[in-house]
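Practice problem: predict the structure.
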Amino acid sequence: MSKENKHIKVIISGGGTGGHIFPAVAIAHEIKSRYPDAEILFVGAKGRMEMEKVPKAGYPIEALWITGINRKKMWKNITFPFKLVSSLWKAKRIINRFQPDFVIGTGGFASGPVLHIAQKKGIPTFIQEQNSYPGITNKLLAKKARKIYTAYEGLEKFFPADKIVKTGNPIRKDIFEGKTDKSEAFRKFGLNESKKTLLSIGGSLGAHPVNEGVKSIINQLRAHDYQVLWQTGANDYEHYKKYDSNHVKVVPFITDMKDAYTIADLIVSRAGAGTISELSVLGKPVILVPSPYVAEDHQTKNAKALADKNAAIMIKEAELKTELWKNIQNIFSDEEKARQLSENIQKLADPDATKKIVNDILMNYAG
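Answer:
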C-alpha cells in the first residue's frame, strides 16, 4: 500500500476471550501508530467481553447476535440457525455502510460472518490464528483469505501453505515497555520482597479448577514460607477471598499485569495462546494447566508444544491436586530447573509479532 494513502478503513473482528481480543487491539494500535487518520471499526458478539474491552481501548464496536455451537448440549443449538442468519445479514449491512479497505479476523464467534461476507464481496481478508490447532471457522475462511498469520509450526495441515506467514502472536505492549520498580510492585500487592512468589492467573474469565488447585496447597505454601498472588476471576472471588492473608493475596482481577509479572518467580496459568505469547516474552518458569473445555482442545495442544521443548510444565486439570505442589516445590528448590525453563520459553518469544503482521497486511493490501 502506498504510504501516501493514509486514510484507510479497516474492520477487525474477534472476541469471546482475551486471547482473541488482545491481539485484535494490538493490531489496531499498530495500524493507528502508522496511519493516525485510519478508521478502525470492531465487530464482536453481543454480550461477550469485547463489547466492554474494545471501547476501553478507544475503538468503536458493533455487535452481532451470534454464539458458538454447543457440542455438549445439542438442544441448546435450536436458535443457532436464526443467530447465524441474523449475523450474516447485519455483517452485510455493516460492511456495505463502512466500506472497509480490508478486514482482519482474530477468531471468536463474530469473525466468521464478518469475514465470510467480506470475502463474498471481494474485500481482502486476513486471519490471525493464535493457536497450534485452529478452529473450524478459520479453516473454512482460510481458503479465501489473502494471508494467515500463525504462531506455531505445522499449520500446513489446516491452511494453504502458500498463505501462511509465521509471525508469532501479538502481545500487549504496555506489559513489557518501560521499567517497573520491583520493590514498589511488592508493596502494591502487600507481599514480602524476600519470599519466593507464585502468581496464579486463570485467564480473563477465571478458572474454578485452577482456583481449587491453589486452595489445596495453601498450607504447604505457608509451611515453606512461600507466598502467592492469586487472581481468582470475578465469578470466584467471593468464594476464595476468605483465604487472603500475609502469605496469600486474593484478588478478583489484576489490572496491572506488568507489576504482577515482575514479582513472580513462578507462574501458574491457563494455556491460551495469547497468554503463552506474553509468558514467552516474559521468560519466567511456567506451569500450564490447559482448559479441556475449549474448542478442539487447543489449549492442551498449545501447552504440549511448550512442554515437549522443556519450555513449560504441563499439568492436566484432573491432576492438579496431586501434581501442582510437587511441581511448584521442584521448581522453587531447583535453580537450574527454573533457569532451563526460563531460557527455553524465552527462545519461543517473538516481541515483534504485531509489527510483522501489519507490515505484511499493508504489503499484501493493494490499496
